[in-house]
Specification:
Structural class: alpha/beta
CATH architecture of the largest domain: Alpha-Beta Complex
Oligomer: single chain
Order of helices and strands: EEEHEHHHEHHEEHEEEEHHEEHH
Distance between the termini: 49 Å
Number of helices: 11
Number of domains: 2
CATH superfamily of the largest domain: Spore Coat Polysaccharide Biosynthesis Protein SpsA, Chain A
Length: 295
């Protein structure tokens, strides 16, 4: 049975962890943040910022680390560039550049050590405060007419509980994810009864894996302070959500759309092809190019 919270509050803030080293993309990420790798015509992180803003989120909190200054510069105003574009009459480019800094209120906080996703989210506590918030991972590109976060907000608005994004994966792949023990509410929606991080296939309670979208009650911060290092020697967000289950209801939603792990080279290439094919500007010529390759 799904329970409804009586403490519904709108989601105004989103946390974007972006302090990772991007080692899977070396040497490209030696001096450039992984989140700034261009996916068609925008850096990876801009896609999730736009997803959040389109859902009504006004405050974007980016958790950064050493060598991530390019992210802050990207979302800041660039007076020199804007003046140059205006002087040259490049109005469309000027509007695109100005829109980036006007999208939301941006705030940044440093994660001093790479101690896991749970630690990164915990670093944002002072900026989030005592209100529910979203977490979006730039690595996860979920391609669908209705964004992943928009799908989850419908559940949040219905039940007023924390919501985590889910994807069914092959049994042998569960070792790469947090996996839930589900209690079915309706098709595609589950109450989360338990969570385990990176289980062996034989020990997995299901094949429903947690992917990079979350809507979280602020009680998660108390749980994050209590957990110990888990899988990989890191502070796991899934462990904190599991602890939160003792007193709070959490729902898991199987997200519609094609998910690309843009944090891997192959996933990044797949996402590039998919988004390029759908691009109003490039899609026609790119599809013709792929057709001519006679793959």
């Amino acid at each position: 049975m799904a329970l409804k919270s009586t403490a519904f509050r709108p989601i105004r803030k989103a946390v974007l962890p972006a302090a990772g080293m991007g080692t899977r993309f070396l040497p490209a990420t030696k001096a450039s943040p992984k989140e700034m790798l261009p996916l068609v015509d925008k850096p990876l992180i801009q896609y999730v910022v736009e997803e959040a803003v389109a859902c009504g989120i006004t405050d974007i909190i980016i958790v950064t680390g050493r060598g991530k200054r390019a992210i802050e510069d990207h979302f800041d105003v660039s007076f020199e560039l804007e003046m140059l574009l205006q002087d040259k009459g490049h109005d469309k480019a000027f509007e695109a550049v100005r829109a980036i800094s006007d999208m939301a209120n941006f705030a940044y906080i440093r994660q001093p050590q790479a101690l896991g996703l749970g630690h990164a989210v915990g670093c944002a506590r002072s900026l989030v405060g005592d209100e529910p918030f979203a977490v979006l991972l730039a690595d996860d590109i979920i391609h669908h007419p209705t964004s992943a976060l928009a799908q989850m907000l419908r559940v949040y608005e219905e039940f007023g509980t924390s919501v985590i994004g889910l994807q069914a994966v092959a049994p042998e792949e569960v070792v790469n994810y947090g996996v839930i023990t589900p209690e079915k509410v309706r098709d595609g929606l589950h109450r989360v009864m338990d969570l385990v991080e990176k289980p062996k296939p034989a020990d997995a309670p299901s094949n429903l894996s947690v992917i990079g979208r979350y809507i979280l009650d602020p009680a998660i911060f108390n749980s994050l302070e209590q957990i110990s290092r888990g899988a990989g020697g890191e502070l796991q967000l899934t462990d904190a959500i599991r602890m939160m289950l003792q007193g709070r209801v959490v729902h898991g939603l199987e997200l519609k759309g094609e998910r690309y792990d843009a944090g891997s080279k192959l996933g990044f290439l797949k996402a590039t092809v998919a988004l390029a094919m759908d691009s109003p500007e490039l899609g026609g010529e790119f599809r013709a190019f792929l057709h001519d390759l006679k793959l």
